[in-house]
Amino acid sequence: MSYPSTTQEYVGSYNNLSLKQAEVPYLRANEVLVKVHAVSLQYRDLLVSKGQYGVGLPDNLVPCSDMAGEILATGEDVKDWKKGDRVCANFATDHLYGDTNASIQKTSLGAQAHGVLTQYKALPAHSLVAIPDHLSFEEASTLPCAALTAYNALQGPVPIKAGDYVLVLGTGGVSIFGLQFAVAAGATVIATSSSDAKLKIASKLGAKHVINYNTNPNWDDEVNKITNGVGVNHVLEVGGPGTLPKSISSTRMGGYVHVIGFVSQDKADSNVVLPLISKAVSLRGIQIGSVSQFKDMNRLMIANQSVTRPLVDKVFAFDKAIEAYAYLESQKHIGKVVIKVAN
After folding, report:
1. Rounded to 5°, angle at Cα 168 from 334 and 210
2. pLDDT tens for residues 209-229?
């Protein structure tokens, strides 16, 4: 395939997403041109599209952070990649290792920087990670945000180990990956959802205990019963203020609550300071992960293919992006929602 001169890309809020034609830039010496095959959606994409994300955005933002594709061309200084390589880009293209910082955050795709809901994307070579051979483009597109966030949470200051208890809230992308990675590590997983049908899928994926929080509104009491009053080692907290007090209540002395999102519409009046102190619980905010962590995560997935394969709920065509956003917003999905870009 010759070097493309133009790309079709989306701009606008999700109810008003529109395709426009843009020029494909000439590559800088350290860049590669990627043909985007698939893009997965995050809750963050909804927030960005509604102006609720709280950061400055470029004009006519191209949305979305997570893609999988193949390299079409490389800049003159690129040595580690070649045409035809299957790759994902890291969520923040300059987050190579260690902690993030304000400069790195400015390279976050789909918000501070233009995203990947486009046919062709020029990216810095250092941001790329090879796709494991056993994954399709659609499956691999789910890795940069949801999978790496879950991996980072469970591999923090006190990494997960066999025999730990892990609580995952809901059955969205991060929670499902957290469930899968915890199972791969030999941990016991407790999963919550408002849907018995979704909990059945969580059980099939390896959750040993499931709790419907509609029929068990005091789900933290149930978690403590399951753990014989001790509590869990790790919580993947995606609900936000409405679920945080019960997540802390569910955590063992010295355990970790990994704060990832705020998808819950519930409100809570509880003061969390005293429970945090009395249980010596650590709250840890998670901002995705680095290229180095991405590579480590892929090694885990390659070694545990049967239990870590990404769960893709539904794939939408490129011209059905608005429908894909609407389906994500409906919260009917379990796992990930994907847009297939290339035919």
Report:
1. 80
2. 999 999 999 999 999 999 999
